UniProtKB/TrEMBL annotation:
<dbReference type="InterPro" id="IPR029485">
    <property type="entry name" value="CAT_C"/>
</dbReference>
<comment type="similarity">
    <text>Belongs to the amino acid-polyamine-organocation (APC) superfamily. Cationic amino acid transporter (CAT) (TC 2.A.3.3) family.</text>
</comment>
<feature type="transmembrane region" description="Helical">
    <location>
        <begin position="327"/>
        <end position="349"/>
    </location>
</feature>
<dbReference type="GO" id="GO:0015171">
    <property type="term" value="F:amino acid transmembrane transporter activity"/>
</dbReference>
<dbReference type="Pfam" id="PF13520">
    <property type="entry name" value="AA_permease_2"/>
</dbReference>
<feature type="transmembrane region" description="Helical">
    <location>
        <begin position="82"/>
        <end position="101"/>
    </location>
</feature>
<keyword id="KW-0472">Membrane</keyword>
<dbReference type="InterPro" id="IPR002293">
    <property type="entry name" value="AA/rel_permease1"/>
</dbReference>
<dbReference type="Pfam" id="PF13906">
    <property type="entry name" value="AA_permease_C"/>
</dbReference>
<feature type="transmembrane region" description="Helical">
    <location>
        <begin position="113"/>
        <end position="134"/>
    </location>
</feature>
<feature type="transmembrane region" description="Helical">
    <location>
        <begin position="202"/>
        <end position="227"/>
    </location>
</feature>
<feature type="transmembrane region" description="Helical">
    <location>
        <begin position="529"/>
        <end position="553"/>
    </location>
</feature>
<feature type="transmembrane region" description="Helical">
    <location>
        <begin position="50"/>
        <end position="70"/>
    </location>
</feature>
<keyword id="KW-0813">Transport</keyword>
<feature type="transmembrane region" description="Helical">
    <location>
        <begin position="503"/>
        <end position="523"/>
    </location>
</feature>
<protein>
    <submittedName>
        <fullName>Cationic amino acid transporter 2</fullName>
    </submittedName>
</protein>
<feature type="transmembrane region" description="Helical">
    <location>
        <begin position="239"/>
        <end position="262"/>
    </location>
</feature>
Length: 592
């Protein structure tokens, strides 16, 4: 049975049976048309330009983690080659960014990966991705909020000197450590998001600018100290790769999560003035800025202090303190606090928009889809998610659940890459016949000039996802026309459209299975050697054969008319999405 392009209601009700349930899970919704508009009470304000998108992308990506990762990864994995680890991780993140850029420009609607999964894969997978993203952003925002008060302690001379309303308090009866500062900050950000998208983005741009200025200070002042002291961190007998290339790659897997956040840009697609142009540029430029800053900071800090002597907790502050610049710790801490605030805004911005998109599709109560008429933001969804995150950050230490953030993001990245393959080879919307057959179809319609012929022509064109049942996996029904068959033979078509779609659909599925088998067997050292190598071989064979088949068969002509035209086109398909799937599954398996 195949994935059906079917948006008919129905499913698991009485008389529906198991088949109805399955069809409801795999049905795919129609891609938004360039002419379609949401109802007035569901319409978001189109206020964002490319500068706003860069502020959202950079602010959501550069968190306080980079102020710690530099020391941890350099000491344990990369050594002086830390900047190469950041470069490799940035290239891996760029693979997902390319996929996001194409889908965001073609389907500029709120919901991000949830929206793309619903259009390209099906309702069941979209539902899982939507909730994974909601949990990711909620837990991530709560964890970020609880990290602010420890960073503020430096300005007050330590944790014990913090004001009562900022310090964490222990409740003996409940054995719970509450954090009022975190809860208040979450509520403040929630109120700011309710004011309007343009106002909240402006505030995030200001906070992000302070963080970027702190990083520029680290780069400039550190470069001056490096030339003054002779770059002691690079004059080591162990060379640039003390842990080998494997250590450098292991460091890349760790710092990859420092690039998570650029996907927040895609969640604001419905609020961008010119999404076809600005969304790809916003995603690409924000990721490029983050990668450049990460690499420059790592080059400077590793050069100031030998990697084995770096403080794992405060590597940047301690590097400046070693050279007599203790006062720099205050600037660096201010940058870390601003980074946390900016990341908190970036974590809370997509949540209500994903809830709104799910409510529009009927997967959540319509309460979440309401948009305030004056501010044109989903105020109700924002208040619900803000209150939930505030309660979570106040009562719970969610640091142990922080891995959920990475799980949700990697699942979303993987599904976006799969969606690009589906878009190119088995697009869920209209699938027209090749242009060489169009004249023949029209001549048949004119020749018989009856309603039946016009209905058959409509069936050939497959229609939209509201009335079409073209499968992603499985055989499509075709209508027999002797004249069409003759024309097809004259045009030397080796595969008809239904057969090509069937082969492409099964090949995409086999490629994903191969990526899972290969990465799991390569990662699990506890497997017996024969089983491990056999699984690696099978997975590699599926992956390689899938790449070859998808390279050889033609991509679907309907991809040109899918969604909004004129947007970004992901290069090197199918190679780039397949490598993206492989990298994300590998990171997902090795997350522990």
């Amino acid at each position: 049975m195949g994935f059906l392009v079917d948006s008919h209601k129905g499913g698991c009700g009485v008389g529906g049976g198991g088949g109805g349930c399955f069809r409801s899970l795999i049905r795919r919704k129609q891609v938004d048309s360039v002419h379609s508009k949401a109802p007035g009470h569901h319409r978001l304000a189109k206020e964002l330009s490319i500068l706003h998108l860069i502020a959202i992308g950079v602010g959501s990506t550069i968190g306080a983690g980079v102020y710690i990762l530099v020391g941890t990864v350099a000491r344990e994995h990369s050594g002086p080659a830390l900047f190469i680890s950041f470069l490799v991780a940035g290239i891996a993140a760029a693979l997902s960014a390319f996929c996001y850029a194409e889908l965001a420009s073609r389907c500029p609607s709120a919901g991000s990966a949830y929206h793309y999964s619903y259009i390209c894969v099906g309702e069941g997978v979209a539902w899982l991705i939507g909730w994974a993203l909601i949990l990711e952003y909620t837990i991530g925002g709560s964890a970020v909020a609880r990290g602010i008060s420890p960073n503020l302690a430096l300005f007050f001379g330590g944790q014990d000197n913090l004001p009562t309303f900022l310090a964490r308090q222990h409740i003996p009866g409940l054995d719970v450590v509450v954090d009022p500062c975190a809860a208040v900050l979450v509520l403040v950000v929630t109120g700011l998001l309710c004011v309007g998208i343009k106002e909240s983005t402006l505030a995030q741009a200001i906070v992000t600018s302070i963080n970027v200025c702190a990083m520029l200070f680290i780069i400039i002042a550190g470069t001056y100290l490096g030339f003054k002291t002779g770059w002691a961190g690079y004059e080591l007998p162990t060379g640039y790769f003390p842990f080998g290339v494997d250590g450098m790659l292991a460091g890349s897997a760790t710092v990859f999560f420092a690039y998570i956040g650029f996907d927040s840009v895609a969640s604001t697609a419905e609020e961008v003035k010119n999404p076809q142009r600005d969304l790809p540029l916003g995603i690409g430029l924000s990721l490029s800025i983050c990668c450049s800053l990460y690499m420059l900071v790592s080059v400077v800090i590793v050069g100031l202090v030998p990697y084995y002597a770096m403080d794992p907790d405060t590597p940047i502050s301690s590097a400046f303190s070693v050279h007599g610049m203790q006062w720099a710790a205050y600037l660096i801490t201010a940058g870390a606090v601003m980074a946390l605030c900016s990341t908190l805004m970036g974590s809370m911005l997509p949540q209500p928009r994903i809830l709104m998109a799910m409510a529009r599709d009927g997967l959540l109560p319509s309460f979440f889809s309401d948009v305030n008429r004056s501010t044109q933001v989903p105020v109700k969804s924002t208040l619900v998610t803000g209150f939930g995150a505030a309660v979570l950050s106040f009562f719970m230490d969610v640091s142990q659940l922080a891995g959920m953030v990475s799980v949700g993001t990697l699942l979303a990245f993987t599904m976006v890459a799969i969606s690009v393959l589906i878009l190119r080879y088995v697009p869920p919307d209209e699938v027209p016949f090749p242009s060489s057959l169009q004249e023949t179809i029209d001549s048949v319609s004119l020749r018989y000039s009856s309603q039946d012929v016009y209905e058959e022509k409509a069936a050939i064109h497959a229609g939209t996802s509201k009335d079409s049942k073209l499968p992603l996996l499985g055989k499509a029904k075709t209508i027999e026309y002797p004249l069409l068959v003759k024309q097809e033979a004259q045009s030397n078509f080796v595969l008809n459209e239904g057969k090509r779609r069937e082969i492409a659909g099964w090949t995409i599925a086999a490629t994903c299975i191969g990526a899972v088998l290969l990465t799991y067997a390569a990662s699990d050292l506890s497997l017996p050697s024969p089983l491990r190598f056999t699984t690696c071989g099978v997975g590699g064979a599926l992956l390689l054969s899938g790449l070859i088949v998808l390279t050889c068969i033609e991509q679907d002509d309907a991809r040109h008319s899918f969604g909004h035209s004129g947007g970004f086109i992901c290069p090197f398909v199918p190679l780039l999405p397949i490598v993206c799937i492989l990298v994300n599954i590998y990171l997902l398996i090795n997350l522990g």
